[in-house]
Specification:
alpha/beta, disordered C terminus, 8-stranded mixed beta sheet, Carbamate kinase, 14 strands, 281 residues, 8 helices
């Protein structure tokens, strides 16, 4: 069985009915052409709206959403409930045999709490056992994975969807990894899309402030996904089908120099000898 394509969709896409319909049609076309597809998604826009309506504040810390105890049920409902079901329904409407899957179902990824009290119930994901997803893909079912994880002690944790997609990509040894967003790619100081980005240049752009805000976790998660999967991760726009074009967006390259967490270092030490040579996404 061929390795799957991992497509990470941003939560804002779910609020754009026309764009969602177009993306789902594109995914259906990919599957009809023989590709196996796994969707990983966020749901930040819905979570923001729900939390705001309830008067619950969830500040961003280093580009990640803090998730205190009073916010956790709302975030879980928005991501694992509304966003996941919405996306599964849209894909099925396009003719895709899709099924909703939790981030840690079947041990797909391992999740542990981020050791930052300001973030509260936020988790970090690393690749786990892909056999559950592999079984679904073998039946021509496309998994739609939300980013709520469950730690070993049963604690529910909100995982950044980009980080989740990277862990899933590492678990299934993805053929291609696409982070679809509402921008054309990673931009340089002049506002132009950067064609390729490695760990060293990314570090310089972040340190200089050229890459900031919500793009920081996206770039670092893309670097992590690229390194763990041995494949470039392409950050590009979902608008107008641009992501289907060869060379669209920014290709974030694998880099053995980029290992942010000890658990990832262990995963790399265990796995990199078996990884194929990286190729262009």
């Amino acid at each position: 069985m061929s390795a799957p394509i991992i497509i990470k969709l941003g939560g804002a896409l779910l609020d754009d009915a026309g764009a969602l319909e177009s993306i789902c049609a594109d995914v259906a076309h990919l599957i009809e052409s023989g590709a196996r597809v796994v969707i990983v998604h966020g749901g930040g826009a819905s979570a923001d709206a729900w939390l705001s309506g309830l008067g619950i504040k969830t500040p961003r810390v280093g580009g990640l959403r803090a998730t205190p105890d009073d916010a956790l049920p709302v975030v879980v409902g928005a991501l694992a409930g509304w966003a996941n079901t919405r996306l599964v329904a849209a894909l099925r409407g396009a003719g895709v045999d899709a099924v909703g899957v939790g981030l840690t179902d079947g041990g797909l990824v391992d999740v542990e709490v981020v050791e930052d009290r300001a973030l509260a119930n936020v988790g970090h994901a690393t690749p786990g056992d892909a056999s559950y997803l592999t079984a679904l893909l073998a039946r021509s079912v496309s998994p739609v994975v939300h980013s709520i994880g469950i730690a070993g002690d049963g604690r529910m944790l909100n995982v950044n969807a980009d980080d989740a997609a990277g862990a899933v990509a590492g678990a299934v040894h993805a053929d291609r990894v696409m982070f679809l967003t509402d921008v054309a790619g990673v931009l340089d100081a002049d506002g132009s899309v950067i064609a390729e980005l490695d760990a060293l240049r990314a570090e310089r752009l972040i340190d200089s402030g050229v890459v900031g805000s919500g793009m920081i976790p996206k770039v670092t998660s893309a670097l992590r996904a690229a390194t763990l999967s041995g494949r470039p991760v392409r950050i590009c726009s979902w608008q107008d089908g641009a992501w289907l074009e060869a060379g669209a967006g920014t290709a974030v390259l694998p880099s053995e120099a980029f290992v942010q967490f000890p658990s990832e270092r262990r995963a790399l030490n265990d796995d990199t000898r078996r990884r194929p040579t990286p190729t262009t996404a």
